Amino acid sequence: MTKQAILAGVILVVLLSAGAFGQDRPEAVVDSSNLTGAILPAPVTNIEAKNHKYDDGERIDLFWEKSVDDPDNIFGYKVYRIDKDGASELVRELLPGTTEYFDEEVENDVPYQYIVAVVGEAGEAPSEMTPEVMAAWEFFNFSKLNILILGFIVCGSVLFFISSAKSGKKLFIRKIGGLEALEEAVGRATEMGRPILFIPGILDLDDVQTLAAITILGKVSRVIADYDSKILMPVSRSLVMTSARETIKESYMSAGRPDGYNDNMVQYITDEQFGYVAAVNGIMVREKPATCLYLGAFFAESLILAETGNSIGAIQIAGTARPGQLPFFVAACDYTLIGEELFAASAYLSGDPKQLGSLKGQDIGKIVAMSAIILGTLAMTFASAWELGFMQSLLDILNSIFVTN
Amino acid sequence: MRKAPIIITAVVAALFVLSWLLKSNGAVVDENSMSAISQGFWITLSAFLTLAVMSFLYQDNPFYKFAEHLYVGVSAAYWMCMGFWTTLVGNLVPRLSEGLSNWFEVPYVGFKPHFIIPLVFGFLLLMRLSPKGGWISRWSLAFIVGTTAGLNLPRFLSSDFISQISATFMPLLVNWQGIGSFFSDFSLSASGQFIGILSNLVVFLGVFCGIIYFFFSKEHKGAFGVASRFGIWILMITFGASFGYTVMGRISLLVGRLTFIMGDWLGLIS
Description:
The complex is a heterodimer of chains A (405) and B (270).
Chain A: H1 2-24, E1 45-51, E2 60-65, E3 76-82, E4 88-94, E5 100-103, E6 111-120, E7 123-126, E8 133-134, H2 145-166, H3 177-192, E9 196-201, H4 208-227, E10 231-235, H5 238-254, E11 266-268, H6 273-287, E12 291-297, H7 301-311, E13 315-320, H8 326-332, E14 335-338, H9 340-350, H10 353-385, H11 389-401
Parallel strand pairs in A: 9-10, 9-12, 10-11, 12-13, 13-14
Antiparallel strand pairs in A: 1-2, 2-5, 3-4, 3-6, 6-7, 6-8
Chain B: H1 3-26, H2 36-54, H3 62-92, H4 98-104, H5 116-126, H6 137-167, H7 179-184, H8 193-213, H9 222-265
């Protein structure tokens, strides 16, 4: 009877202990049986769960200091998530040496707690349970405040110069070589009685280079309409075809020659890169355009197009902001608009106050960039060579401004 | 009609048939995929189209035209099908209509009302086909251009402006221990102090003068012009290096095609 009472007491104590343990430990974690006689590894310490800042409320960041038995005596870590009902779920198994985990499978504004268990030969050694934490969304991302401020500076400059240009102030823009030759090239085509080929790249309207190309097309097609010349524009995107037709039609109407416009000036070929190139090459050798304009986003087709244009003796003007393709255009074309010159071209050609103001505003951005580069380089040089404290402070400030998250 | 084109076409056709027969005869037949005749045909057709496209290097000719038109036709049809099945059926239908999803046999995701917006804009684009309502299609274009510009502004400002500036912060004096130490430990080793300083100086001056080249508000004369010319020189040197690097990549593509011609088709290399 006594033995039975003692046994019942022990069982009761064990059950109560297990029940009490179960209040703050998930069931899966309490398996710390030491059947082999091995010692449980030391648990992790300083475990901390935090809402991930500046997101849409779907992530909780978990940090801890690794077990002192890491890496020799452990197999890894297990991360358990406990929801508001006390149900635990193993969310991740991690390798030794890991000290953080970002849980991206949580719901917005729901409280969670976490336990990180160290897995060793003897079983799992759970950590303390973290306080409740909720993933919350933030309306404003302060980590991108610098982008906003710099955006305001650049956009503010643009607006200021647009306003200046509209008020009649003359804005100076330096000459851009390739564009000076544009009218000459169109005139040459007219004299020779041959068409002008315009290739707007192979990307869609969601690429800024294509937009720049379409803007330049407006000016070019206006000159073509004035000269009563002919334009050929094979395109590889349906939306580009639509907008190009609109643009050319507008130019012909503004030139007072709506009858000269024809939808067939712009032809859709195919979205396939080399299928498009094969067709354009065919058009080049059959129609023999006197002028070829390649303006927009180009990839491997740049040299194929430019070489074919060269072989038929056409004047070629190219422009792209893709650094990888610029060498081919530089080598094979008569004039090349390098990088931002492509975007400056439309402003230069049109003389439109909005575009000129935009270009001048961008130059303010370049002044900011040059100033920052000089300051940052000097600060880093003096801080590293002579360990000047105020230079290090200046460098820290610059790094905090020109950092991206 | 001139006889030469007919004779050339006949010769090419005869060679095609001969190649087909020979390749079919020697083909290793995979019972699960295709017959020897089919395998021989596709290898011969691949070789013919490769040579037809390469013949453009000589001049435009009917074989190139055939390959070109075949490529354009097949690819245009392919992309149209892809657009329909991946965009309309794959993305739009499962979020708008359960009935249509079942009809197209794609899993219904659930009704997402905001997907009506692209549907409407898609229809607006089609209004271009209407003689009187064509102007409505501009709304879709305006939406695309506007959202593109808006979405790209912070992205480019971050990656092409801010990141590039901070990446240029580098010390012009690397591992500096004084002028005496610099000369006493002078070395032309790639990991040495002198090369480190030179490298950082080239980056600093290259970036700075490169930006000056793209400065449009001032005439490039005097010191400004010198800096601008240095900037364009740096750009040209970079283009030269990039040109050589890319050409080497293109050569590997040519090698791939020649390997097919010489190996898979002619069997001259194993």
